[in-house]
Amino acid sequence: MPRSIYDLLAKGHKILINGRQGQYQVVKALKRNVFQALTVGSNSPVIIKTEGVDPVIYQTEANCYSYRCVAESPYIRAMHEVVDNDMDRCMVFEYLDTDLWSLRARAQELGQPFLKAVATSILEAVNTFSDMDGHFTALHTVIPSEGFDDFRLQGAEIRAPEIWKGMLPRPHCQVWSVGVTLTHFCTNRVVFGNWDQDCRVQEFPLEVNKSAWAIGKIIKLIGLLERDEDPKYRLEFDLAELFVKQGLIKVGSLEEELAKVNAPKGCVDFIYHLLTIDDKRRPTAAQALQHPWLQNLERCTILKGSEKPKFWMMRRQEAQPAR
């Protein structure tokens, strides 16, 4: 059984992970199963991801990198190697020193070229996972349904309407999550989800209240949802409609929220396109990439203090070889 890196690190232990391509010293925990580490010798930073509480999802992610399209994609974080020995079971990924959320306060400064580059890169990655070298095996569809009857994938903020209803994940739900991510970046705050819930119906469980609030947010921002949910989630949808009817959820329409930050019309149209409620009408990643707003993509610069302009590259300089 692999050791618990998180617990050992919390106790002050020095953690060295022995891989085939190098040795890695863990320096800090980012999550319970995600760590920053340094490659011994070169001090090159890497990200370590352990099995965590769900070995099925871990193995699914590892298996994805056996596909050439994923291993070589310049839009997907590169995997250096998989470590599987008597002490550790983990994946070693390239280290990225910036994420989209950390740049959200500079959304207006970075402008449309940056946002277009981000949207294009994410959708290219989603498109890769949707195709999988022509096998059409999306990341989500290779996860067996057994054991997931009471567990809906995707976080509450980015969860697509069909997932709230109890449907099995398909690539279209990832397109929805891209739309939510871009909304949060543009507005510099979390708009979807239940983070701001300030009331609940005491007669119902907390989780039902939290789910209902997040569903109500979708109704307020995008529009009414067709009531074809799995019967076991009916209470969540009933309560969501009650929250909306009583005016308890203080958020405007998506257009109103984006207008507060003067989001360009083309950008607003594009986000609405991604956030089509009906997953059967929602564009695929490939179709979304053809949206007029993404055409004529310019290269954009990120300025840091007195540094020379740095290009935000949509592609890494060198693709990782297939494994």
From TrEMBL:
Positions of the Protein kinase domain: 24-294
Q: Which domain of life is it from?
A: Eukaryota
Enumerate the SMART domains for this protein.
Answer: S_TKc
Q: Which InterPro entries match?
A: Kinase-like_dom_sf (IPR011009), MAPK (IPR050117), Prot_kinase_dom (IPR000719)
Q: Which UniProt keywords apply?
A: ATP-binding, Kinase, Nucleotide-binding, Serine/threonine-protein kinase, Transferase
The entry lists its GO molecular-function terms as:
ATP binding; protein serine/threonine kinase activity
What Gene3D superfamilies does the entry give? Transferase(Phosphotransferase) domain 1
Pfam families named among the record's database cross-references:
Pkinase
Name of protein? Protein kinase domain-containing protein
Q: What organism does the record attribute this protein to?
A: Arthroderma otae (strain ATCC MYA-4605 / CBS 113480) (Microsporum canis)
